[in-house]
Amino acid sequence: MFRSLLRLQTQFGNTLLFSKVCQRSQHCGSAQKYSSAAAERRRFYQDVSISQGEGGLYEINLDRRKLKTPGGKLFTVPNEALAIAVATEWDAQRDTLKFYTMHLTTLCNTALDNPTQRTEDQMISAALKFLETDTVCYRVEEPHGLVELQKNEWDPVLHWIENRYNVTIGSSCSIMGPEIPEATKDTFRQHLKSYNFWSLTGLEYVITQLKSVVLSMGMIDRHLSVEQAVLLSRLEEEYQIQHWGNVEWAHDYDMFELRARTAAGALFVHLSSESSTVKRKLLQD
Q1: Cis-peptide, bond into residue 78, ω within 30° of zero
Q2: For residues 38 and 245, what is the distance between their CA atoms, to the nearest angstrom?
Q3: Residue 11 within any structural domain of the chain
Q4: Distance CA 18, CA 60 (A)
Q5: Contact assessment for residue 114 and residue 205, using Cβ atoms and an 8 Å cutoff
Q6: Judging by DSSP bridges, how do beta strands 76-77 and 65-66 pair with one another?
């Protein structure tokens, strides 16, 4: 996955230097706090690099300055692969930094600052609440074409996750959704306890994008691709568009944005679970 990025590593040991992209602006210092989706600022650095700091954690360097979180903490990630992915986001920025496109950086900031001070148990409980209103569990009663589409497209995924985790979920046409057995919740709760705090941060992000635990777990378990999971989460919208048309640019923008956010969240989950560093021999390919 990172093979093309790793070719950029130079002879400077554990530090990964990226090519100079634009002229350095007059602004200095670490990235400032940002909170809105429209937050932007001019690029103030030329080079992006990663280095290994205390405790084996990896840091992101903008020129000679260490990146910090919006809360003022030193920006550190648990492994080299995630550091490379984050550094790539910063290097991909041009004259203007578009923070709303830097999903991995945002997820790292959330995990590091934990602004709402939540525990892992609280995050797991919040994620499991989506089971009660899961996208693939709520079914319509009409029109017939959409009823059949939901059955044909959602039922296979629902059956897969029930067999995969030996649970019962079911579906319902009630606005309240299906009644999820406590045994099912307990099974998923125990499974999610195997995730670390960072991975839970990414998983919860994916679930909120897709409004579905079923689709999120299917994607994290590699049963579904990002494209499949996103399309299944938008099944009713796509059905309506096929019948009534759409504003093409708006539809495409929404689809691409959802894919980008979902892909970043899934990648974050996998990279946050990675404990080993990138093998040095890959750098010579």
Answers
A1: no
A2: 29
A3: yes
A4: 12
A5: no
A6: unpaired
Question: What angle is formed at CA 133 by the lines to CA 127 and CA 136, rounded to 5 degrees?
Answer: 100
Give the domain extent around 261. 120-272
Tokens at 15, concatenated: 């530090």
Place of tokens 């001019």: 42
Amino acid (one-letter) located at 285: D
> What DSSP letter does each residue of 58-98 carry, written as one string?
EEEEETTEEPB-TTS-B-EESSHHHHHHHHHHHHH--SEEE
In this structure, is the dihedral angle defined by the CA atoms of residues 134, 137, 139 and 145, taken in order, positive or negative?
positive
66-125 pLDDT, tens digit per residue, is 999 999 999 999 999 999 999 999 999 999 999 999 999 999 999 999 999 999 999 999
Cβ neighbours of residue 51 under 8 Å, at least 6 residues apart?
Answer: 14, 15, 58, 59, 61
Q: Is the dihedral of CA 144, 147, 151, 153 positive or negative?
A: positive
Q: What is d(CA 236, CA 44) in angstroms, rounded to the nearest whole number?
A: 44
Residue 260 lies in a domain: yes
Domain count, the chain: 2
Model pTM? 0.80
